[in-house]
């Protein structure tokens, strides 16, 4: 039994799919199958149940995976400590986030104060980040709504209004607020299914009594704003997207209906080794969003009661 066998087993166990695991590991499928078979021979126990072409991790496999995960975590910890004493240590934190207009500023500010830390950053939709976290391909992520998976922890970062973005000449543009049903006949530009924002706004609309007429679906939130600016339709946007909007061709309109909010959360694996750099970054993110929450409250005092739902910092750090 060697480290390569254990690494291959770990990947197959996470995927429960030989073909996908072989593709991820960039090896031939027969070679991977043979490696797993040799590992099972070495252990004297089957780690997977074979169901035709499918495989499922059995009870012995689940127990063995827990020990393999801990072993690799200890090896990684040892590697960091060995490198750290040379003064050449650079910690890498893998982060994923939904589209947020200030993420680059947030990361740059942290790196300026912690130059020994490096980041791998991915931007994606809710469903893709959930899979990345499940596969342990990321250390932590910012999502809306919270990601619920076994052996993970999620905390609330902030709660923000969802608004309507309309062209400047639109019939609703001069309104301070509207009831959502007033937009029933409008053409909408929306994010594709799988984005948490799309799920949230579809739910809001159903509660208001209609299904939005989405005539244009996009994956890039920046394109959504441009299409509204061009007069193609209207769109739902979170308050954070609108906080520094200086575009004279669009205006955001607040929604008077109750519960037109979304909650941003920070999620990480409970098995994540809380290295000093990881812990510093986790606390930094919480404090950064706490300041953003206060800016939202100051900018829209009428919704302060709803927006103040952020968990107290003393409970998070």
Short description:
InterPro entries: LysR_HTH_N, LysR_subst-bd, WH-like_DNA-bd_sf, WH_DNA-bd_sf. One of its GO terms (cellular component) is protein-DNA complex. The protein is of the alpha/beta class and 317 residues long.
Describe this structure in words.
- The chain is of the alpha/beta class.
- The chain folds into two domains: 3-84, Winged helix-like DNA-binding domain superfamily/Winged helix DNA-binding domain (Arc Repressor Mutant, subunit A), CATH 1.10.10.10; 90-317, D-Maltodextrin-Binding Protein, domain 2.
- The protein is built from eleven helices and twelve strands.
- β3 (91-97), α5 (103-113) and β4 (117-123) form a beta-alpha-beta unit.
- α1 (3-15) crosses α2 and α1 (3-15) crosses α4 (59-84).
* CATH topological fold name of the largest domain: D-Maltodextrin-Binding Protein, domain 2
Beta-strand content bin = 15-25%
Shape: globular
Number of helices: 11
Number of strands: 12
Which sequence of SSEs, written as H and E, runs from N to C?
Answer: HHHEEHEHEHEEEEHEHEHEEHH
| Largest sheet data | 8 strands, mixed
The Cα radius of gyration reads: 23 Å
Q: Which oligomeric form is depicted?
A: single chain
- Mean pLDDT equals 86
Count of spatially separate domains: 2
Distance between the termini: 41 Å
The helix-and-strand class reads alpha/beta
* CATH class membership of the largest domain: Alpha Beta
pLDDT < 50 stretches: 302-317
**Residues in helix, %:** 40-55%
CATH architecture of the largest domain: 3-Layer(aba) Sandwich
């Amino acid at each position: 039994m060697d480290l390569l066998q254990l690494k291959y087993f770990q990947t197959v166990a996470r995927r429960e799919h030989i073909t996908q695991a072989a593709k991820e590991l960039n090896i031939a499928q027969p070679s991977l199958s043979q490696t797993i078979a040799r590992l099972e021979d070495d252990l004297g126990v089957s780690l997977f149940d074979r169901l035709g072409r499918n495989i499922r991790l059995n009870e012995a496999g689940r127990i063995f995976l827990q020990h393999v995960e801990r072993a690799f975590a200890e090896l990684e910890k040892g590697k960091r400590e060995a490198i750290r004493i040379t003064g050449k240590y650079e910690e890498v934190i893998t982060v994923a986030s939904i589209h947020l207009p200030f993420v680059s500023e947030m990361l740059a500010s942290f790196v300026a104060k912690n130059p020994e830390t490096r980041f791998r950053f991915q931007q994606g939709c809710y469903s893709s980040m959930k899979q990345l976290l499940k596969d342990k391909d990321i250390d932590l992520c910012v999502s809306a709504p919270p990601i619920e998976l076994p052996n993970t922890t999620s905390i609330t970062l902030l709660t923000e209004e969802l608004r309507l973005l309309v062209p400047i000449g639109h019939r609703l543009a001069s309104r301070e607020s509207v009831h959502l049903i007033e937009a029933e006949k409008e053409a909408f530009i929306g994010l594709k299914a799988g984005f948490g924002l799309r799920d949230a706004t579809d739910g809001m609309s159903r509660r208001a009594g209609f299904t939005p007429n989405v005539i244009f679906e996009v994956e890039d939130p920046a394109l959504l704003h441009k299409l509204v600016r061009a007069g193609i339709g209207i769109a739902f946007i979170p308050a954070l997207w609108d906080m520094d909007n200086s575009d004279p061709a669009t205006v955001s309109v607040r929604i008077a209906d109750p519960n037109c909010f979304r909650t941003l959360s920070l999620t990480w694996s409970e098995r994540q080794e809380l290295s000093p750099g990881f812990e510093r970054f986790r606390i930094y993110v919480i404090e950064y969003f706490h300041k953003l929450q206060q800016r939202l409250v100051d900018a829209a005092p009428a919704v302060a009661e709803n927006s103040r739902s952020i968990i107290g910092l003393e409970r998070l750090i």
